[in-house]
Amino acid sequence: MAETPEILELKFAGGGVSPETVKPSEIAHLIENFERIVLLQAKAMEPGIDTDEVLVAFHKLDDKSLDLIFKTVKVRQIILNSYLLIASSFATGDYSQIHRSAIGPLKDIVKFSKRHNCEGSFKHNDAVISTFNPESEIEYNLQNTVKGQTTIYGKIIRIGGEEPKIHFRINEEEKLIFDVDEQQAKKLSPKLYEFIGLTGTATWNSINLTIDNFKIDAIINVDTSKPYSDTFSELKGIIGKYWDEIEDIDSYIN
């Protein structure tokens, strides 16, 4: 028998906010950010899960205020744990357990409350877990992060949006999602699914050494006219650990 899905809600009320007073693009951005924070936190808590699968789905929009309702689809307990950790952080004011990559989209959700002068709430199965308002601030301690210049190699698998973001696949296990400006998005769009390099400033988690954020400075075009195995030999000294487990480079990149 199929598991009963958990119902997760992000609700905004007050200030006259409703689906009729908010642009569809803003609602879409809220839905995207909700999915991002839940999946990014879930991935941080359970690195083995596949966040490219549909794990949480948009269920419906309640027009009594602006009530975005979602339901769990797969790995229900992992998604629920991720959501409850995020939601409860607003009740305690302690955001230290939230993965850094989820902080940006979480702040965007709070900005919606400021922009529309309304109160937001996180709910689970119709019960309120926590609330936030236009005065709410997310204080996040960056002491466990390190910044530095680096080069990453992989494929762009998705790019764009009203506030452009890039989904950059480094290998089968690692995918980075980070912001780009409109000019960078236009420049990178033709390179969708191509194997490229990006140089820039990375922010690492000093505890597990994963990249939490990345800011692009320059694009490196990889010469695809020669076998990838030759290119790989030139790059291995830089990207080392990301490719140690890949035996057939040509097959993987193709």
- Return the average pLDDT rounded to an integer: 83
Number of E-type strands: 10
Percentage of residues in strands: 25-35%
Number of domains: 2
User: What's the number of helices?
Assistant: 6
Strand order of the largest sheet: 2-3-1-4-5
Distance between the termini: 39 Å
Name the shape in a single word.
globular
Description of the structure:
The protein has helices at residues 24-45, 76-92, 100-116, 182-188, 228-239, 249-253; strands spanning 7-13, 56-62, 66-72, 119-124, 127-132, 145-160, 165-169, 175-179, 195-205, 211-221. The chain has two domains: 7-132, no CATH class; 145-253, OB fold (Dihydrolipoamide Acetyltransferase, E2P). Helix 1 crosses helix 2 and helix 1 (24-45) packs antiparallel against helix 3. The chain has six helices and ten strands. Helix content is 31%, strand content 32%. By secondary structure, the chain is an alpha+beta fold. Strand 9 (195-205) and strand 10 (211-221) form a beta hairpin.
Summarize this structure as a short list of keywords or feature phrases.
five-stranded antiparallel β-sheet, alpha+beta, single chain, 10 strands, 32% strand, 31% helix, 254 residues, OB fold (Dihydrolipoamide Acetyltransferase, E2P)
